[in-house]
Design brief:
binds adenosine-5'-triphosphate, six-stranded mixed beta sheet, 9 helices, alpha/beta
Length: about 260
Amino acid sequence: MTTPALSLKNLSKSFGPAKIINDVTLDIAKGERHAIIGPNGAGKSTLFNLISGLYVPTSGTVSLNGTLISGVPPHEINRMGLSRSFQVSNIFANMTVRENVRCGVLHSLGQGYSFWKNIGTQKDVNAKTFEVMEHCGLLDKANTPAALLPYADQRSLEIAITIAGGADVILLDEPTAGMSHSETDRAVDLIARATEGKTLVIVEHDMGVIFNLADRISVLVYGEIIASAPPSEIRGDPKVREAYLGDEALPEEVV
Ligand SMILES: Nc1ncnc2c1ncn2[C@@H]1O[C@H](COP(=O)(O)OP(=O)(O)OP(=O)(O)O)[C@@H](O)[C@H]1O
């Protein structure tokens, strides 16, 4: 069997007496697009924080491409090939689109933002920055300060920064939150293109997005995964329907 891109084993996280993530075991294959869904407060962001190293597990482990990463600091996990976006935007408002993407590229190289770098490296960084902006439909806004971008473009920039470092495992936290229908459609296209050939783990409340994008869906309820299967099976799962009763409806019409 090939090594999974991500492997969570008996992962738990408590805050004081409250067990927020409870014995989660999940393998995500290389190249898979995997969605985590669940009602508000189910623990989705906490799970992301455990995977990306912001939280240390109370028990259990996380492995990235077969290497144990639980307890490793977030910036090192990033350099090992995992990059995440945040629900609250991570962009530098006063910097241009180009400078923001460039920061993402440099960060992964461990250089920080500096003008004092040799020309060879600068050329590589510039080429990568151009490629990412092109990929994310941001080339024509390269010189626009991020703060002046329309909201949907700011979210695209967030995705651009997340993929800029060339990580092969990408975690996106609610990338289409607050978008209109047409903006969401464009964002789904962008996410599909930008993560081609990579492993994607996405937390998202918009079921249309999830059912159109994901190869497999895990449903988190009160910190436990109650189902993990392709979209067609998830939609018909009575346990999932019960968990969503009174919450976001599972769409019949998508896919
Ligand atoms: N640092 C913390 N200390 C204490 N409790 C926390 C902490 N972080 C999260 N929680 C609690 O864990 C639970 C799960 O929160 P989390 O944000 O992971 O849920 P979620 O599924 O991402 O929710 P949403 O869909 O609303 O974003 C909540 O009850 C929250 O209050």
